């Protein structure tokens, strides 16, 4: 770990104006960070204009390519340094992506300016720098750290977002667009300065951030974040410019910092990103802004938060918790201690009915409990707000030494509050009409630290930014934005939205979040859980099955196991029903799709029962429809509906045949149950995976009778199938349909289609004329009109193996065994050569292949491999796997390790794996590479050290597996019974670049 906060340290740096060790709710022990040694130093070539911008002529001289190249080439634990060269001290940049363990350092005098060219930050074409109705996440951040553990940005230089500056080719600024969006139905699409996602132990140190177009720093889902000595300087009047927002994160310390901004100085959020826990804000000063806030999203749960040794001057609020019934949850264990507050309108603001957001109603009820305000001094007038939600969920708060210089000038309001006065009392009088008060109201002696507030209330260093006045712009009319959000006026997406093998996808909407699962067959972990905020961009976040439930799956069972699942939300639970064609119908459920799922429960035993889908109706009953696997039951193109116990535990009858039409709709399968108004719908594919179509079935009762219509078919498009999928209804009133397309070696990739309802009450999926009843798949369409619109981080592919374990994207061929892998502490994946069980002749029967999906038409995969120990017959390498497979790697022979390559055709039929020798064991760092070109054409290559890659002469054409696409990955295996210590294959990384 480079220069970051180290969890094993034993002491904390002394506070500069406390002279004491920090008492932290962050469970780490935190020292002042240290700047790591440089791996590369880049000199500035631009001269700033008055330290505030660069000339128009220099605006196009973007430095981000050379900065990114240096970051990509830097080893973990080292730094890329941006350095001034005389009066040349400016860099202009588009988005930058940090890597694991790499620090970006801005040396003294350096200013890194965010480019004023909005298109550089586009997530989708023409999205950034526009006001749109469909959401405000169209821009990449200036600096992003995505799963980049131990990365950092350090000073003493400056990052300037230039929110005040006119955009290239436009007549408006970032901040003017933000103001324009305030009173309209639009969302602004402005870039953040720094955004991290699942990057543990991320650090900001000795750095100045200013003039961000949007939030300055957002830290999502991190375990470990430190901001030390950070100065944020953005003027009053710059809308949505939060200082630092830890979101769904734990073990956070924000220390020794100075924040002057246009929105929340700090906002601790706990919404869809998860709980916010173990957070310390200390030894810091806050000027303009909305104070240190917890919320408004608290439905993920927030607690164990300490705000200590802080000052507030001129902020709107100081100590604040905010939420409402659309986003509320439990906030517990928040302590504010040793704070000086001067000229703040709301020194203490506990708000359970937060009204700044248009959504206030719902069933996510906020409850603030265990809040302690201790040793706090209020100077000047102000209002204290104590607002619990209702009589059952009161605000539980303690005042223990709350002092007002002029108590008569402190007003109070609120309701549903339980206020306890601690031993040090309170001079702030809270009437019984506001809170039920227990304890003596009379204050004791003011602590010396509060008596010294006047010296602690220091001016903002260097002078705060001058408040701004932004123009009020008229609503846009350029076709790129729309208050109505009509499809013609929105950004577009292109199919496939998931160019990876997620067979039989099912999707649900839960508020602003979308969740997907898919078939996983015998691969482990199984039942992938994906998340999106816009239906277009998806991230893999979990698996519902950490292992498979039967010992038979301790060995590969190609094509067996977990077939087409259905994902639903009911009664506060997320449910997945799936069929195992050899065992029956199973159910698993959870309260949190990112958390643990229950062990699979056998709902109905039976051969060939597949594709189950549940439906709960308003009368309290539950139903389940399923299809049959002909290979196990001899039956196809039949759909059967059962009544089911409402708890999903068992079927209650032998079933009703609701559909069978072997002439018009043969091979009917994959049914999905839905309710629309008073009608029951089943959407199901017919005609086969590669050549079929989508059918809608319509009835007034789950048992039918049903009428049928084909609503989507390939017709004259290139989208064959189109097969099994999911209907999703949006809050905006739009309907969408996701389905898969079988693309051979690339697997069953996912498309998104618009879905419309005709006057006759039938849906049409895809595009269609007014006279058509059957739609055609679209390749390009306007993005869905969603309320959040936050793009995901995308599918994970690269893995640096920082923890010594494979990332979430990897799967084994069978239930994993502890003997397949060794624990490491040096950021290396260590696989042990596991012997093939007789009578296996090749790796088709190897359970310990570690593989992941193809996720692009063309891409390059690079790994670094070394070996320890080993017996004759041990092998390790990089591979592409399917019914045919190929690999490059090392094999231990009688005369030592050899560099070899192999291709095996018809591996499922037992073809022998006989590698060819390429070279003797190379001396030096061995890197292996595979390049996949369009059509699944694969070329393997290798190099030693920094030399050129040498190609293996023969190319290989990837082939699908059993019901799945081809995969790539790494392995360590043995084909010999020769005695000796099995080889340990050490993979430093697997890096994937899409081309």
Number of helices: 5
Low-confidence stretches: 1-24, 476-489
Judging from the principal axes of the Cα atoms, what is the shape?
A: globular
Mean pLDDT: 90
Helical amount: under 10%
SS strand fraction: 35-45%
Main pleated sheet: 20 strands, parallel
What is the terminal separation in angstroms?
31 Å
Radius of gyration: 30 Å
Q: Which class do the helix and strand fractions yield?
A: mainly beta
Give the total of beta strands.
71
SSE layout and pairings?
Layout: E1 38-43, H1 64-72, E2 79-83, E3 90-93, E4 96-98, E5 103-106, E6 111-114, E7 131-132, E8 143-146, E9 152-154, E10 158-160, H2 174-182, E11 187-188, E12 194-197, E13 202-205, E14 208-210, E15 217-220, E16 223-228, E17 231-233, E18 244-247, E19 250-255, E20 258-260, E21 266-268, E22 276-286, E23 292-294, E24 302-313, E25 317-322, E26 330-342, E27 346-351, E28 367-379, E29 382-387, E30 395-404, E31 410-415, E32 417-421, E33 435-438, H3 448-451, H4 453-456, E34 492-494, E35 506-510, E36 513-517, E37 526-532, E38 539-545, E39 563-570, E40 573-580, E41 584-590, E42 601-605, E43 609-616, E44 622-628, H5 630-633, E45 638-644, E46 656-660, E47 672-676, E48 679-686, E49 693-699, E50 707-713, E51 725-729, E52 735-742, E53 748-757, E54 763-765, E55 780-782, E56 811-812, E57 821-822, E58 829-832, E59 834-835, E60 850-853, E61 859-868, E62 874-881, E63 885-893, E64 896-904, E65 916-920, E66 926-933, E67 937-944, E68 950-951, E69 956-957, E70 967-974, E71 984-994
Parallel strand pairs: 1-2, 2-5, 3-6, 4-8, 5-9, 6-10, 8-12, 9-13, 10-14, 12-15, 13-16, 14-17, 15-18, 16-19, 17-20, 19-22, 20-22, 21-23, 22-24, 23-25, 24-26, 25-27, 26-28, 27-29, 28-30, 29-31, 30-32, 32-33, 59-70
Antiparallel strand pairs: 7-11, 34-55, 35-36, 36-37, 37-38, 39-40, 40-41, 41-42, 43-44, 44-45, 45-46, 47-48, 48-49, 49-50, 51-52, 52-53, 53-54, 56-60, 57-58, 58-71, 60-70, 61-66, 61-71, 62-63, 62-70, 63-64, 64-65, 66-67, 67-68, 67-69
């Amino acid at each position: 770990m480079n220069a970051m906060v180290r969890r094993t340290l034993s002491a904390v740096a002394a506070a500069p104006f406390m002279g004491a060790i920090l008492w932290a709710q962050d469970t780490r022990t935190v020292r002042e960070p240290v700047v790591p040694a440089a791996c590369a130093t880049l000199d500035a070539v631009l001269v700033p204009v008055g330290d505030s911008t660069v000339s128009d002529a220099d605006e196009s001289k973007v430095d981000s390519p050379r900065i990114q190249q240096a970051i990509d080439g830097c080893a973990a634990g080292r730094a890329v340094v941006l350095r001034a060269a005389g009066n040349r001290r400016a860099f202009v940049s588009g988005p930058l992506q940090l890597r694991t363990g790499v620090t970006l350092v801005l040396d003294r005098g350096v200013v890194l300016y965010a480019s004023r060219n909005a298109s550089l930050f586009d997530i989708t074409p023409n999205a950034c720098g526009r006001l749109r109705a469909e959401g405000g996440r169209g821009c990449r951040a200036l600096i992003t750290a995505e799963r980049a553990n131990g990365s950092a940005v350090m000073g003493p230089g400056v990052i300037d977002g230039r929110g005040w500056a006119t955009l290239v080719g436009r007549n408006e600024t970032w901040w003017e667009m933000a103001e324009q969006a305030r009173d309209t139905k639009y969302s602004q699409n402005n870039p953040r300065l720094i955004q991290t996602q699942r990057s543990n132990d991320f650090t900001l140190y000795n750095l100045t951030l200013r003039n961000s177009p949007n939030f300055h720093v957002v830290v999502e889902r991190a375990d470990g974040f430190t901001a030390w000595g950070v100065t944020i300087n953005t003027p009053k009047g710059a809308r949505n410019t939060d200082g630092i927002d830890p979101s769904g994160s734990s073990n956070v310390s924000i220390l020794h910092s100075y924040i002057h901004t246009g929105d929340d100085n700090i906002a601790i959020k706990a919404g869809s990103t998860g709980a916010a826990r173990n957070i310390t804000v200390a030894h810091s000063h806050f000027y303009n802004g909305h104070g240190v806030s917890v919320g408004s999203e608290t439905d993920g749960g927030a607690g164990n938060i300490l705000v200590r040794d802080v000052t507030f001057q001129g902020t709107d609020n100081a100590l604040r918790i905010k939420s409402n019934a659309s986003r509320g949850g439990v906030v517990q264990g928040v302590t504010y201690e040793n704070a000086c507050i001067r000229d703040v309108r709301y020194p203490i603001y506990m708000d359970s009915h937060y009204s700044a957001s248009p959504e206030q109603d719902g069933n996510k009820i906020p409850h603030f409990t265990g809040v302690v305000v201790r040793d706090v001094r209020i100077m000047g007038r102000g209002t204290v707000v104590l607002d619990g939600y209702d009589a059952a969920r009161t605000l539980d708060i303690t005042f223990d030494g709350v002092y007002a210089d002029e108590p008569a000038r402190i007003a109070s309001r609120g309701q549903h509050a339980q206020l306890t006065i601690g031993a040090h009392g309170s001079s702030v009088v809270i009437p019984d009409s506001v809170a039920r008060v227990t304890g003596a109201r009379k204050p004791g002696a003011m602590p010396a630290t509060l008596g010294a507030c006047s010296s602690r209330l220091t001016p903002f260093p260097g002078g705060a930014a001058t408040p701004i006045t932004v123009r009020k712009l008229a609503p846009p009319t350029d076709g790129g934005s729309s208050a109505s959000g009509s499809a013609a006026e929105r950004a577009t997406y292109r199919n496939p939205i998931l160019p990876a093998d997620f067979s039989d996808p099912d999707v649900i909407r839960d508020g602003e979040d979308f969740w997907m699962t898919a078939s996983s067959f015998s691969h482990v972990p199984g039942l992938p859980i994906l998340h999106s905020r816009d239906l277009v961009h998806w991230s893999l976040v979990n698996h519902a099955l950490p292992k498979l439930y039967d010992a038979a799956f301790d060995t590969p069972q190609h094509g067996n196991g977990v077939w087409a699942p259905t994902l639903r939300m009911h009664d506060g639970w997320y449910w997945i029903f799936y069929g195992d064609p050899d065992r029956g119908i199973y159910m698993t459920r959870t309260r949190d799709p990112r958390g643990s799922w229950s062990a699979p429960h056998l709902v109905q035993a039976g051969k060939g029962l597949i594709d189950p889908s549940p439906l709960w109706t308003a009368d309290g009953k539950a139903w389940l429809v399923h299809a049959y696997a002909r290979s196990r039951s001899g039956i196809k193109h039949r759909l059967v509906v059962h009544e089911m116990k409402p708890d999903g535990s068992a079927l209650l009858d032998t079933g009703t045949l609701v559909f069978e039409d072997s002439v018009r709709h043969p091979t009917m399968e994959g049914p999905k149950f839905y309710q629309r108004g008073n009608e029951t719908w089943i959407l199901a594919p017919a005609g086969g995976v590669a050549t079929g179509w989508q059918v809608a079935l319509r009835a007034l009762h789950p048992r039918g009778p049903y009428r049928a219509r084909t609503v989507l078919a390939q017709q004259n498009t290139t989208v064959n199938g189109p097969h099994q999928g999911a209907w999703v209804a949006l809050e905006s009133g739009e309907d969408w349909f996701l389905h898969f397309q079988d693309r051979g070696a690339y697997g069953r990739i996912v498309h998104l289609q618009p879905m419309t309802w005709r006057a006759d009450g039938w849906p049409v999926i895809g595009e269609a004329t007014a006279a058509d009843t059957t739609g055609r798949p679209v390749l390009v369409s306007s993005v869905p009109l969603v309320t959040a619109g936050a793009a995901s981080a995308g599918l994970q592919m690269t893995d640096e193996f920082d923890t010594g374990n494979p990332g979430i994207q990897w799967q084994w061929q069978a239930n994993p065994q502890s003997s397949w892998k060794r624990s490491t502490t040096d950021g290396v994946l260590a696989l042990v050569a596991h012997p093939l069980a007789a009578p296996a002749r090749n790796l088709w029967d190897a359970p310990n292949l570690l593989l992941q999906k193809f996720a692009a038409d063309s891409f390059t995969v690079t790994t670094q491999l070394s070996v320890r120990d080993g017996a004759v017959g041990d092998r390790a390498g990089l591979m592409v796997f399917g019914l045919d497979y190929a690999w490059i790697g090392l094999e231990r022979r009688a005369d030592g390790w050899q560099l070899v390559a192999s291709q095996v055709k018809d591996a499922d039929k037992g073809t022998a794996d006989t590698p060819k020798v390429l070279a003797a064991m190379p001396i030096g760092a061995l890197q292996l590479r595979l390049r996949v070109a369009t059509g699944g054409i694969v070329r393997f290559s290798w190099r030693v050290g920094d030399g050129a890659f040498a190609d293996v002469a023969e190319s290989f054409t990837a082939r699908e597996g059993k019901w799945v696409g081809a995969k790539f990955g790494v392995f360590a295996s043995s084909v010999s019974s020769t005695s000796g210590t099995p080889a340990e294959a050490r993979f430093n990384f697997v890096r994937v670049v899409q081309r």
